[in-house]
Amino acid sequence: MRVRLAYGRDGLVIDVPEDRTTVVQPQYLPGLPDQYGALRTAVRDPVGGASPLRQLAGPNDIVAISVCDITRPMPTSTVLPVVLEELRHLPDENIVILVATGTHRPNTCDELKNMLGSQIVERYTVVNHDAFDSSGVVHLGETSRGIPILLNRLWTEADVRVTLGFVEPHFFAGFSGGPKMVAPGLAAFDTTMMLHNAEMIGHPNATWGVTVGNPIHDAIREIAEQTGVDFSVEVTLNRDHQVTSVYAGDPPTAHRAASRFAKSVAMQQVQEPFDVVVTTNSGYPLDMNLYQSVKGMSAAAQVVKTGGTIICAAECSDGVPEHGEYSRLLRSRSSPEELLEMICGGGHNVHDQWQVQIQAQIQMKANVLIKTGYLRDAEIKQAHLEPVDDVERATHGRLDAAGPDSRLCVIPEGPQTIPYLA
């Protein structure tokens, strides 16, 4: 049986034994036949009792719009023009578009033009959020659990705040989009560190598809509600990055509706764990680096046997990457066990440690092999992973080693499909 894996821009095809392979992929839905019409209808007839977007902003108001960065496949160039059309009664200079980078690197000018459209970049003020610039954030109090709320100054000073989110299951926040477009998207480093500390990441409810009772999602929802978001547009996508549903209006209502839809399409139950799981990180742009590809590994970890094997295909065109602390942290200890001991031992709170913690937790359960197009074997080994050149050959080899009754699961779209055990 031939299966196409989402890998980079071009994909990767492998042959697997049909008689012992389960392929888990999202229910394919075609893109909406009239995406622009659906988006216009949603912002003009919003959910949750919200006013239509064009009625929220007066002609002299300042409007801030939070949008995804380059690491998300959000079709901002499709969604944003519809939103801006509803705000055409405002002068251009009254609108600021904030790229919710969280603690990621700033997006380049070319990336911004690709994400938003050249005309929008040239016409409007577009700002990459900088979590490390203390002068660019404002302190707005604390959450009920004592997390400091430090958010982008341009966002907090706006009269009307709008978020544009892409909703899919998230490996520790439950679902993406929604309040994540505020925190950590537009939050200061100190806020993000508290949201992602070892205790929060290690909580059993900090996982795919769980929002209520998930301490991370509970906190980011509290931050968004406490500081105020006036309107949100939430979309779900198919594997071709086309819009399959859209919800707009009252932020909590819109996000709950999008999350329910995403769960029905993207999460699938299986009956028992597998000896070998082949996964991806959904191709470009999600598999741009190893850091992001931990999500694909986490999807596989939900259904791999203890002591089994995960094989991840992620192109990593942007490297490990070298920005941030993820690479340095991985190199700072000689094994996943030592990494977990360092992070969970108390008193350790460093940028990107959450990704290292999740990766190490996965590696305590299963062996993780990775196929990339850009990382050297030495770099992969420094990340405590095993490099492979040929996914198909590695898959057959691991199945043979596991015995004649071994079973394989393939997750071609990575974290766009989350399997879970019955």
Characterization of the model:
Strand 1 (2-5) and strand 2 form a beta hairpin. A six-stranded parallel sheet has the order 3-19-15-16-17-18, sandwiched between helices. It has a six-stranded mixed sheet with strand order 6-5-4-9-12-13, sandwiched between helices. The chain starts with a strand and ends with a strand. The protein has helices at 35-44, 53-56, 76-86, 109-116, 118-123, 153-157, 189-195, 198-202, 215-227, 251-266, 290-301, 326-331, 336-344, 353-365, 377-382, 391-402; strands at 2-5, 12-15, 21-23, 63-67, 95-99, 125-128, 137-142, 148-152, 160-166, 169-170, 174-175, 231-237, 243-249, 267-270, 274-280, 304-313, 367-371, 386-387, 408-411, 418-421. 34% of the residues lie in helices and 23% in strands. The protein is α/β, with parallel strands linked by helices and 422 residues long.
Percent of residues in helices: 25-40%
Shape, per Cα inertia axes: globular
DSSP strand count:
20
Roughly how many Å is the radius of gyration?
21 Å
Q: Percent of residues in beta strands? A: 15-25%
Helical stretch tally: 16
Largest sheet: 6 strands, parallel
| Average pLDDT figure | 96
For the termini, the CA-CA separation is 26 Å
Please list the strands of the largest sheet in the order they lie side by side.
3-19-15-16-17-18
Uncertain spans, ≥5 residues at pLDDT below 50? none
Structural class: alpha/beta
